[in-house]
Amino acid sequence: MSAHLPHHALQSSADLDPLLHAIGDARVVLLGEASHGTHEYYTWRAATTKRLVQEKGFQFIAVEGDWPDCFEVNMAIKQPQDQRPASELLQTFNRWPTWMWGNWEIAALVDWLRQHNAGQESSRKVGFYGLDVYSLWESLEQIMQYAGTKGEAAAQAAQRAYRCFEPYSADPQEYAQAVAFVKEDCEDEVVTMLRELKRRLPATGPDGLGPEIDFATEQNALVAVNAERYYKAMLRGGGSSWNVRDRHMMETLERLLELHGPDSKAIVWEHNTHIGDARYTDMAADGMVNVGQLARQQLGREEVYSVGFGSYQGSVIAAKAWGAPIEKMPVPEARSNSWEALLHTQIGRNALLFSNEIRQLPALKEHIGHRAIGVVYRPERERFGNYVPTVVPERYDAFMYIEQTKALHPLPTKVNEHVPPDLYPWTD
């Protein structure tokens, strides 16, 4: 590309001024990442989040994490009596890949959220929630603790659902394989449980958080319903399980917006593959949708602002196989003819780009390879994969480019023995 690539400096939080202006009155801001293990993606998202909270009144952060674990963090940052160090609190993220939310970068954000919330009324405290779908057993266990407060019918429905899953030893793959070719599954039990829990009774909770406790119990039931569908869909292959997952995340986001009121505003932290509109990638050809697409369609294009992330080279935290030990790995120079190589050649330093300023460049109206690193990564295979064909200025509204990155800093969390099924078919 010979034409100049318009961009803005990106060195300090003050350089986010043009981004805050471009976001304007958007209700939902989607902040991506090109890997789940890069320090700069987390710190720039944190810097953007702090400004959105302080200057534009955003009320909660929703992340690509499990509902029960994230809700424990949410309750802790809103209750002054919970004095656990952030590094201890984040040990709750003990299922592989633990480092996604159990890291020192998130610990620093948790400390900031606590300090911010300490000076706020209960209704104005910033929340932290998980959007994801695969905490089936953890959610069932949470429901068993609170179902009794919802009445006898709800408690009995919860017990029936829990007993239905008990024979599978908290292993979602064992459950999915067991019911794949028979009619006897647990779908009716979890759907009935959700229906009974929706018949809300007044809930009580600390520091005026009763409505959130009530919401969380119902949300755990929704997770159980959609997780049951998700694990069965995985055996069928294709994009069906991905769509179950992202539709669940979108439904959860909408429920959280409703919980926080008609003027509520949300910040979403997820991988680029979730927040960048799928219609402008090769995902569309496989019938796959994602949060970025669904948010634009269901909330309105002007209500959603998405920011993609990427880098040229550096290091990353990942694993060489699903469930394997984590490693610090090199991220090689971006392959030629990719979006990242173009930014390196034309800019060569950290930069902020806006789609409305680059949309008319001819080369960017076509699909171009855009790097995506998941929790499973093999740098030596990069030239054969890890690039998603993307029409960049349509997939995102803005893009943060980091020339040189370094790996995330994980907490020393002991991993739970139950590793979830491979959730990222596009990473290896």
UniProtKB/TrEMBL annotation:
InterPro entries documented for this protein: Emycin_Estase (IPR007815), Hydrolase/PRTase-associated (IPR052036), UCP036794_erythomycin (IPR014622)
The UniProt entry, under Gene3D superfamilies, shows: Biosynthetic Protein domain, EreA-like (biosynthetic domain), EreA-like, domain 2
| Entry protein name | Erythromycin esterase family protein
Organism name: Hymenobacter koreensis
Record lineage: Bacteria, Pseudomonadati, Bacteroidota, Cytophagia, Cytophagales
